[in-house]
Amino acid sequence: MGITRRQFIKRTGLATAGTLMGPGLFGNPFVRQALAETIGDRYLVVFYLDGGNDGLNTVVPHDDVGSLRTAYEVARNAGSGGLRIPPGDLLLPSLPFQDPNTNTQLGFHPGLGGFKELYDRGWLAVVQGCGYPEHSLSHDSSTRIWESGFPQGSGGLPGGTGWVGRHLALEYTGKDIPAVNIANSVAGEFKQSTTSVLAVRRLRRFGFPYDGYNPLDQAAKRAAFAALYDAASQGAEATISFLGDAGQATLVSSESYPALHETYEEERPDWDELYSEIDRGSATDLREVAKIIYGVANGAPGVNARFFRVRNGGYDTHADQGGGESNGHHYDLHTEVGDSLKVFYDDLDDMGVAGKVCTVVWSEFSRRIPQNSDGTDHGSQGPMFIIGAGVNGGVYGNHPNIDLLALDDDGNTAYTQDANPFRSIDFRDVYGTVFKHWLNMDQATILTSALSLDVGDPTYYWTSANFDLGFLP
Q1: More exposed terminus of the chain, fewer Cβ within 10 Å: N or C?
Q2: Is residue 355 part of a domain?
């Protein structure tokens, strides 16, 4: 006798699996079995600074060659509650670190010692002035825009897909799990409905959601689930077949991923301890990614993920932001992220894969140029960071014009695609460069299946793509 979709989902445990891991199977797929060879022997990590990072106090004008330092000092106060960072407190890399437009010497926030070290190796690219037209000052709206890569819509391209998700949908099937989110649910960047994405906080606690009744029957339960999934995979109805494929992958991944934790702890104890010494969420999350990469690099069975996403929150710094002092909130955030990524890449380098891992760091917007009493309000354009031993390190894009007379009515820098010295970098050009030069997509496919050009005034809207920004070979 035939069964309905609802009966099949309930009887095979997929409804329970989706409920435990997030908002449901199709909105939150979380399993992987095989990997197509789209990315080759490479990995992509997306790192989100949640809350709106203050870009002006992240990459800071050091001197006044192009009047940027003067404008900075007008906008940022000194003294109690002031956010101004003196030139002498900024971290100056040994490699050239100048704004390409004004030749102003730049410096990293004093909390970003990890970024300075990565930059000195040539492993970090700073892409200044990243934004999009008609920017939103809403966290939710702007986050959806960055995650989807589609500023002209409220939730992305059709289906609410993400910019990485559309690539995954092009290259993988329901049997695949090419991506892992270190989170309790699938992030917006990875959303799509074609392949599966693992969403898990800690590998050691990941497992198949068997019921708790009579654990001695687990082998029999597994055999029953495997038989159901196999039968469903052979079915003629697409939905049931997809669920069968996903179910099979669930079993494989739930038995394969936890072992990566034990292997890493046993074989890389010194590196495991370095993450623990940082003792922060970003370090712990990146260590989970490192465990998976180590497993893939060493041929762990049932594991082939190549795409990852991590997040660090706390950047909504309306108050108590702090300048360059070590007890400031922004200093604390920068230290956590910089030190964590530094240890992560040291770990990868020791594995021999630092040149195979590209990390894209973004935030939904920067902060306002003039400070408020002791913090900053929602802003517009800010820097992105591209990290990896395979990256062409340096400074790309122009520092935004922070002169008070050039700001909009909210005190934010103006996005422009006009051919002027302060031309903005549209964040979609950063995504497109990653697609083209890291994921091996041709530009025509990118513009038909992954990113959409704007329609409108070409001096303001993104009507001409530049997917050769140079930070990737």
Answers
A1: N
A2: yes
